[in-house]
Each structure stands twice: as structure tokens, then as C-alpha cells.
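#structure-requests
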Amino acid sequence: MTGGQRDNLRATLTDARKMIQRMTAMRGGSKTQDVHDSQDKGEGSTRTLRLIKGLFAGIRSSRVRLASKQGPAALFQPMITSSRSGFLECDYNLHKSNSTYFSDFDVARIDILVSLCGNGIEKTRQELAKEMGTKDRFGIMLGGVNCNFRKEIKPYQGYDIWTRLLTWDEKWFYGICHFVKKGAVKPKEYTLQPWKNSNSKDDGSSEKAATTPTGPPHPAIFASGIAKYVFKKGRLTIPPERVFSAAGLLPPRPTNHEFPPLSVTPNFDATSVDAVAASAVEQITPDNAGEIMAASLTAKAGDGEWTWERVEEERKRGLRIAGMFNGLHELNDEFNYEGKPVLGRY
């Protein structure tokens, strides 16, 4: 083995070690989904293999990042994770069980966070260790998840999971995913995997949406989901903007703009959607809710430089649907059965 080969092997093993640490931290926030583990993906070994696959895909992408940063233009770009509905994922209706979608979302979020924010997470962890002088664990916690089902996925049918960042506020960042018929939608190019670009041009075989962004959903969509996460170091909440900036995903900030401060969050369920989202929620009615959701689930297309103002416009647009998602917190108030009759206990 030559000296250059040894250096490449050493660099790859270092990348693997760092990404395992990142994935371990990310998995720390998935406990709210562990209730599905006995049902999803059949066995835990299958789930582990899928996570390892995402790990090494992230390692390969990291080699590209060394030569070229993705930059702000990639902030709202989706990551595609391919999968197939195995027999053990199907229920008695002979289609993919609803409970297994959450497991897929869990795997997909690791794929995109490692590839998009891996360097930023590592840099932020190192900065906080120096600033705070503590060894509190840095993790990504899941605060809530919701999934809407449109069409069934049949046994052994392939599908793609398109996952992307929707928006963020001072505490939470929100990710959305679409379960789509495999191969029905072809991307223009692959930002982190340029070796695939020669095969990414649309050959006319992909299904076309027959509607505008505010019309009915794309016909290839099986289901759509949204989840919110928070960066934590011990009890401290780390503003998402700080991690995205460390990852090189944000354009230069205005001179009068500062990072939101670190904060202690005593109530993990408390939401912090800013005034933009709160104002938008007040304007939502049963008549316009569908139009707002359809428009917010798709990032605005367009080329050109992603300035701070353009990123903020897209972030605030995404907060409209995030505000509706956070309205589900009112469900907690519906639990008021103390001292009241129930049907029974099984």
C-alpha cells in the first residue's frame, strides 16, 4: 500500500468515525418513534443495514464536499432515499403498513442531515465545547411527526422518499418528506453526487404533474409527512440558524443580524414559531387551507443567487404550514378524563 492509499484510507476511516458519532447523536432524538420498532421494517437488523447504507453514502458525499461546498442553493433541495415495501412491512390489507412510514422518515432524515449538515453539526459541537467547557451530549431531538396518506404502496413495490428542509424558527427546524412512486420523478441534477448527473436528465418517461403548485397533489405521491426537530446540548437549545451557518448553507448575514441566543427549554413541547407563522395561521380558513398546504410543500423554483433576503422569503413561506402543524399541540388539552367513565381496559 502506497503512502497516498494509506492517507485516503485514514481519511475515510476518520469520516466514518465522525459520521457514526453524528448518527448516534441523531438517533438520540428518535425515542418518540421507538413504539413502532416492533412493527417497522420487520426486524431491527434490516433497519440497521439501512442506516449503515446511509452512513457510507454520506461518507462518499463528504469527499465531494471537501472540493466543493454546496452553499445556500442546496439548503432547500431534497434528498432522495429509495426503498421497497417488503413482506414484513405489509399488514392484513396486503399493503405497506401505516406504522412503517415513520421508520422510513427516520432513515431519510439521517440521510439528509448527515449529507447536508454533517460538517456544520461537527463544527458547532466543537465550538460549544470550547464556549461552555462542558461535555454535555449534543443531539437532535424529534419533537413531533405527522403523515398524510393518499395511495397504498403494494407488497414489494419500490418507492422514493424525497426529504427536504421546510423552514426553521429560533428553536425548531422542520423537515418534510414525500413518498413517491419509484422513478416517477427525475431530478435535474445531483448536487452532492455529480457522477450521477449524466443519467439524471429527464428522458420523457417521468410522470408529469397535470396541475399547478396550488392545485391537486402530484399523482405519483403515496404519502406526505412533516416532522420538527431541535438541536440540543444538554438542556440548552441550539438555534438551527447557527448549525446551518456553520455548514455553509446560509448566505452572508446583514450587519445588524445576530444569532438567536442559546436557551434552556423547560417545556419540550412548547412551540416557538415566530410571529410570521402565527399571523399566517390566523388567516387560514377551511376554504384556503388546502391551497396553502399545496403551495408550502414545494420550494419555489428558480435559478440565481440565494441572497439572505431570498432565503428569508422561503423560510417564512414554509412557516405557514409549520404553523398549522404546531396547532396539533392543542390535542394535549383534549385529555381531560380524570374521574370520568371509560369504556374499559384491555
